[in-house]
Design a protein that fits this description.
Blueprint lengths: L3 E2 L10 H7 L15 H21 L6 E4 L2 H15 L6 E5 L4 H12 L3 E5 L9 H7 L4 E5 L14 H11 L2 E5 L11 H4 L3 E5 L10 E5 L25 H38 L4 E3 L10 E6 L4 H10 L2 E2 L15 H5 L4 H5 L1 E5 L6 H20 L2 H14 L1
Parallel strand pairs: 1-11, 3-4, 3-5, 5-6, 6-7
Antiparallel strand pairs: 2-8, 7-8, 9-10, 10-12
Helix pairs in contact: 1-8, 2-8, 3-4, 5-6, 9-12
């Protein structure tokens, strides 16, 4: 049976050259970067080399990069660290309703500590109107957090620069969760106009457990983890040097290969969109049709639950997702799809594809071959579909 993995938004395979970069730090190069002896100096050099590579990927300065353990940690570090550092100016935070749970749950934690928050809406394609951000900002607002790209529906915010200008005019710090975007599409922190940006290596062939937070020089931020002097005193604890070395290597490779990856994967994505959107009934593309990640396609499939599709496809050797990795086991309807205006029934039929360039046209052909019979079989077991057919027959009569 053919095996086809199309759930790479949950994590990409480790690039062979990233693995090679990691190996010395799993063996003979075990020194602590904080020590001044030769073992420590060798580790410190590797640490700073990786920092420089990550900085180049997003056009930052190396001193503006802080290593973390995950995109979720980076988002928590940003939201809480920026809020606490600027709390004398105010305790109001603005985010969008479609942010990752690591932002929304960090916000809940801050609210329990006396902060207030406003969540700005999105349209049916998960696009944010800069005017809504402007209206949400008050004299007490100190931090705005808006994701650059949504991992669940693939939308890349087309008005992000205008949002940054709104925040700049109001004197408000802007953070972006760019975990789904960095290393996949060009990301330039100077052009975006952000003061903080989260990224994670497992989105661009780096190791899981490797991530970073960019903080623009001069931006006040407090540590999320207290302790020692690591990461310029902003993130205590022994550095995960193997993971950081792998992250640095993956960042350098992504910078070189990003366009060639897009050229390979986007036609495969478009083939899936063509088949599901135009060749199947009651299947609709979710997210923006144009301003979306090049490797990402997401849909709502009527009259079928996402879990049933995932399990049945897995029996055919095909791995996809239904909603974000952080919500797929929660048995809850996607907050992103509900915010976009989908009803509960359609939101339960969420299907998400995220591709990498090692996939082939034959892999996509295999999916297109097995998917329609699966949907037909599942719909025959659906009371909602039976009701739909009966109502349709009554209308004809």
């Amino acid at each position: 049976m053919r095996r086809v993995y199309m759930d790479h938004i949950a994590g990409t395979p480790l690039h062979p050259r990233a693995k090679v970069a990691m190996l010395p730090f799993l063996g003979e190069k075990f020194g602590n970067p904080q020590n001044i002896h030769s073992f420590g100096q060798a580790a410190a050099e590797a640490l700073e080399e990786a920092r420089a590579r990550v900085a180049v990927l997003i056009n930052a300065e190396p001193s503006e990069i802080y290593f973390t353990s995950s995109g979720s940690e980076s988002n928590n570090f940003a939201l809480k660290g920026l809020a606490h550092a600027n709390r004398k100016q105010g305790k109001h935070i603005v985010v969008s309703v479609v942010e990752h749970l690591s932002v929304l749950n960090a916000l809940k934690s801050l609210e329990r500590s006396g902060y207030s928050a406003t969540q700005v809406p999105v349209d049916q394609q998960a696009v944010i109107d800069p005017d809504d951000v402007r209206k949400a900002i008050t004299p007490e607002t100190t931090v705005v957090s808006i994701s650059l790209a949504n991992s669940e529906v693939g939308t890349v915010q087309p008005h992000f620069r205008e949002i940054a200008e709104v925040c700049s005019s109001a004197g408000v710090v802007l953070h972006t969760d760019a975990v789904a975007a960095a290393g996949v599409i060009p990301v330039d922190v100077r052009e975006l106009g952000v003061q903080a940006l989260s990224l994670a290596g497992n989105q661009f062939y780096g190791p899981a457990g490797s991530a970073a937070l960019y903080v623009r020089k001069g931006t006040a931020i407090l540590p999320l983890i207290d302790g020692g002097i690591q990461e310029h005193g902003k993130r205590a604890g022994a550095e995960n040097l193997p993971g950081i070395a792998g992250l640095g290597a993956a960042a350098e490779i992504a910078g070189r290969e990003m366009e060639s990856r897009r050229v390979k994967v986007q036609p495969l994505r478009d083939r899936i969109i063509q088949h599901l959107s135009f060749e199947m009934e009651h299947v609709a593309l979710t997210g923006h049709p144009v301003n979306r990640l090049p490797h990402h396609a997401s849909f709502s499939v009527a009259f079928v639950e996402g879990e049933a599709m995932l399990l049945t496809l897995d029996m055919q050797g095909i791995a996809v997702s239904s909603g974000s990795a952080c919500t797929s086991k929660s048995l809850k309807v996607s907050h992103v799809l509900l915010a976009m205006g989908l009803d509960h029934a359609l939101a339960q039929g969420s299907l998400v594809f995220s591709l990498i360039d090692s996939l082939t046209p034959e892999d996509i052909d295999y999916f297109i071959e097995v998917f329609p019979p699966i949907i037909e079989r599942l719909r025959k077991m659906s009371p909602l579909y039976t009701q739909y057919l009966e109502e349709k027959d009554n209308d004809v009569q």
